[in-house]
Design a protein that fits this description.
single chain, mainly alpha, Arc Repressor Mutant, subunit A, Tetracycline Repressor, domain 2, 10 helices, elongated
Length: 220
């Protein structure tokens, strides 16, 4: 039976107590891995009983989901400032994607969740759903402003854009396994294959149902 750590007393404040448990969970998960960590392990690290942990989190799934959400949002907060700087839509978009994914790789919890080995199985759909939600949280103000300025296509479904961008970030995350974030190949890939799908048409070209259409054909 695991011995409880001495001296770790949960705060009487509910939110602070949850935060203490999350910090304990983070330590244990980094030690044993996400799949092998139990509620008993987390309780031991927090210095409380397992029933006490269940008073704050319904089950292990909820606890780990909240932990992942917390760590991921920390990554996003560090990226917001970059998206608010002066610069073109194209430059800030590419720099923002690369910077966000690079930060995700540096966070041990986020990196563990996004590892290629975890990008499949039953939990994959939940991971993608959370990734799309977080992507929307970070990118919506930036993309909305780009649409207002006429720099981004206005015919795209926002929900689909965020899910697609989440998948792009997964691909970028995997490519950084073998290439440094500073490798210019990342920016070239995004500029060649990703940007054209978002940038508003110019020089007399409009878009209908996702296809470029010249002015002459548009009148027919």
């Amino acid at each position: 039976m695991a011995r409880r750590k001495a001296g770790n007393v949960l705060s009487k404040d509910g939110e602070e107590a949850r935060s203490q448990i999350l910090h304990a969970a983070q330590k244990v998960i980094l030690r044993f891995g996400l799949a092998k960590t139990t509620m008993e392990d987390i309780a031991t690290e927090a210095g409380v009983s397992r029933p006490t942990v269940y008073r704050y989190f319904q089950d292990r799934t909820e606890l780990t989901s909240v932990l992942i959400d917390w760590r991921a949002r920390e990554v996003l907060e560090a990226s917001r400032e970059l998206l608010q700087r002066e610069g073109s839509f194209e430059d800030n978009f590419i720099a923002g994607l690369i910077h966000t994914v690079a930060l995700a790789r540096e966070d041990p919890i986020v990196a563990m969740v996004l590892a290629p080995a975890n990008q499949r199985g039953e939990s994959w759909s939940e991971t993608l759903e959370l990734a799309a939600e977080l992507t929307a949280d970070l990118w919506e103000p930036f993309l909305k402003e780009a649409r207002t300025r006429g720099e981004m296509r206005s015919d795209l479904n926002s929900s689909e854009v965020y899910t697609w961008l989440a998948l792009v970030q997964f691909a970028l995350f995997n490519s950084m396994e073998s290439m440094e974030p500073s490798d210019p190949a990342h920016a070239r890939m995004l500029k060649t294959f990703v940007l054209p799908a978002l940038v508003a048409p110019t020089d007399g070209v409009t878009v209908r149902r996702g296809r470029p259409l010249s002015k002459n054909l548009k009148r027919q």
